[in-house]
Every structure is written in C-alpha cells, then in structure tokens.
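Q: How do we represent a protein-ligand complex in a form that can be generated token by token?
A: Start from the inputs.
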Amino acid sequence: MSDDIAPAGPVGSAGAGVADRAAPGRASSADELVIAGLVPLSTCDWPDHLVATAFLQGCPWDCTYCHNPDLIDPRRAGTVAWSQVRELLDRRQGRLDGVVFSGGEPTRQAGLADAMRDVRARGFAVGLHTSGAYPRRLRELLPLVDWVGIDIKAPRGRYAAITGVAASEDLAFASLRLVLDAGVAVQVRTTVDPTSLDEDDVADLSATLRAMGVRDHVLQEMRTTGVRPQYLAALRRTAARTPPAPRRADPDPAAPALPSAEALPPAEALPPAEAPPSADDEGLR
Ligand code: SF4
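Then emit the structure tokens for the protein with iron/sulfur cluster bound:
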C-alpha cells in the first residue's frame, strides 16, 4: 500500500489528520508494488478458496493490537518483486483459485490496480483485505475485485482509540458502504479487543452492520502473537481490573470470550514481533 512510498504520517504515532489522500493519480505499474511477503498457498485468507497471498508494505494507521507492526512503515523496502508473483501464478495455473492482496493496507499502493488486472488476465480471481483507509482508491479497484475482507474495527466513537487516527472511522465506514453498494462479495471482520471494546460495543457494531446490509460479519479473537509488548501490557491491565462481566441478556453466541489475566503470557515471555513471510521463507528464491 504505498503510493509512491511517501510516509503517510509518523509511524508509531497517532497520525492524526491522515485523510483519504490516495486519490488516483498517475498510472502506476504492478512492478512498483512494495511487497513484504508472499504466501504461495493459503486456505484461510479467502473462505473456500485456494489462493496465493501477497502482503503489501505500509499502513497509514497504527492499531494498538496490530499483530504485524513490521508491515506499517511505508518506507520499508519490499522483499518480493511482482515478477515473482507472476511467475508463481504461471506455475500454479489450474491449482490456485486466486490471489489475495493483504497488508499492511494494500489499497495504499497505486500499482495495485495494475497488479489486479495482471492477475485477472492470467485467469485468477482477485481478493482484497482492507481496513478501508482509502475509499477513493477502493472505489476504483472494486470493478477488479471478486471478494473483499474488510476490517470494521469498532462502532463509531471507538475507532481512534484503536487506530490512533481520528478520521479512520469515517474512512472505514465509507469504504464499507462502497463495497456494499458495488455488490461485491464481502466479509466484515472485527477483532474483539478487550482493551477498547466491551460486549455492548460489539453488540452495537453488529446491529449497525446488519442495518447497513452486512450478511457476513465475523468476530475474531484478538491474537497475542506478534503484537507489541505495550499492547500485551495493556491487555494484562485490562484483564486484571475487569471483574467477570455479567452476561448480556442477549449475548452474541459468536462473540469470543474475553481473555482472563491468567490466559495472557507473562511479561518476561513476550513473543518477538512476527516477521512477515519472505520470498526465502516461501522457497521462491
Ligand atoms: S490497519 Fe491493519 S496493518 Fe494497519 S496498523 Fe491496523 S492492524 Fe496493522
């Protein structure tokens, strides 16, 4: 997701004021994509599809619970060339259903449309993971996309505490509206982050999404691998001060249980940040 690899705000800071600045500009080639990693075969990135997944470098947001913070910095160099993705697809004709563009935030990069056209020209379907940070570019991409997995992180009023960016909720909900209006198949995903959301927030969000016309909303359990130590510490503090919550009268049966303090790794056992998959890891070199 790096349009020209210009930093979209100070990495690791709130990044307040980051707007939808990725408006389509000059045409950009797939060969300019900055790709942090490529998984040649995934069964979980697009439901019921066998795909290759490309992780694009750079994200304008800085979510507290980001489990791959190494993908945030848009100045970081890529490790996989688009030509390697092309070669992979040519070798996997008939054995893959499609390619998922993930990140980071893949819509940040101007070369994404060209890459999607390339994928379609080779006979593969296109999936997109996005948090909806760039709705103007997303609108241009939607005709090239067969399926979208979009993160809607919180109900309105709760977004900035997660992403560090005041405008993020407007951008995310605008993007979701675009996807729904385009009629593209979509799964909405929400990470249930106990440091920023409670059960009422999750219920409110689910109701909002249903009212918008969302039919597929998945609640994801927050991961503790790969996240920053500060986030693990915040989780521990939240778990320590949160008494067992009385259940709502109408609990969402799909809602993951909030973790107890005992379930969290101790401070001295914090896992290292998860490195994105590389071409070497995946045997592409
Ligand atoms: S939007 Fe995704 S990639 Fe970006 S900081 Fe948040 S969790 Fe990480």
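The chain has a mean pLDDT of 83. The helical segments are 82-91, 112-121, 135-141, 159-163, 168-182, 199-212, 229-241.
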